[in-house]
Design goal:
CATH topology of the largest domain: Jelly Rolls
CATH class of the largest domain: Mainly Beta
Distance between the termini: 10 Å
Radius of gyration: 18 Å
Order of helices and strands: HEEEEEEEEHHHEEHHEEH
GO molecular function: DNA binding; DNA-binding transcription factor activity
Number of helices: 7
Largest sheet: 4 strands, antiparallel
Strand content: 25-35%
Protein name: Crp/Fnr family transcriptional regulator
Number of domains: 2
CATH architecture of the largest domain: Sandwich
Strand order of the largest sheet: 1-8-3-6
Pfam families: cNMP_binding (PF00027), HTH_Crp_2 (PF13545)
Keywords: DNA-binding, Transcription, Transcription regulation
Shape: globular
């Protein structure tokens, strides 16, 4: 069971640089958002597909004052506004936005790349289902451990005392990602530190000192 921060390992912007995608983004518009701005909400009524050009976006659900983060979108990620999720800029952000109808027509006009896009959107769906699965079958401690494990395996860097992972998230935002309060998240991080599994580093980074112990904590 995985609980990733990011939806994709593929950078769609890099993929768009190939000749097969020439003209694919013609007609797309650039939209900018400042940190903290709600870029899309279920009530906005926009039906579009967008690619993150720069910055970070948080995809989350909100109900009766409670929030749960489904994913963090970063440069090169693709997502649709046609969901019940809210999307917030975590930093100054730029996105390329295309109406869903126009996007569909582009796929019809470029059949050679349709399967690539369908595969990417399938990855988005799988990652969203992983987030829901972890919420149902894992407790907060297990979800936090799993996020750290996945980040270590995907983007971690080996250092003398373990594996360095950079979440670049505040304790509050980590809590929103695992479905816990800031206080509970802080207590769990400190617990991992006391168990000599985790070590705080600079710039919102951690060093996983014992990934096998962390994997044991992630199991239901």
């Amino acid at each position: 069971m995985h609980r990733k921060m990011r939806l994709l390992s593929t950078n769609v912007l890099d993929m768009m640089k190939s000749k097969a995608f020439d003209g694919f983004l013609s007609g797309a518009c650039l939209r900018k958002a400042d940190k903290g701005a709600l870029v899309f909400t279920p009530e906005s009524g926009e039906n579009a597909v967008f690619i993150v050009v720069s910055g970070r976006l948080r995809v989350f659900l909100s109900y009766e004052g409670r929030e749960f983060t489904l994913a963090i979108l970063e440069q090169g990620d693709i997502f649709s506004t046609h969901t019940r999720a809210m999307i917030e800029a975590m930093s100054h952000t730029e996105i390329m936005l295309m109406n869903t109808k126009d996007f569909r027509e582009k796929l019809v006009a470029h059949p050679e790349i349709s399967m690539a896009i369908v595969g990417i959107l399938g990855d988005v769906l799988n990652s969203s289902l992983d987030a829901i699965e972890s919420l149902v079958f894992q407790d907060v401690r297990q979800r936090l451990a799993q996020i750290l494990i996945d980040e270590a395996e995907e983007r971690g860097e080996k250092v003398p005392n373990g594996i360095s992972v950079s979440l670049d998230l505040s304790t509050e935002n980590i809590g929103l990602l695992v479905g816990a309060s800031r206080q509970t998240t802080s207590q769990l991080i400190n617990e991992f530190i006391r168990l000599d599994i985790l070590e705080k580093s600079e710039n919102r980074s951690f060093v996983i000192k014992n990934i096998n112990a962390l994997k044991a904590l992630s199991r239901p």
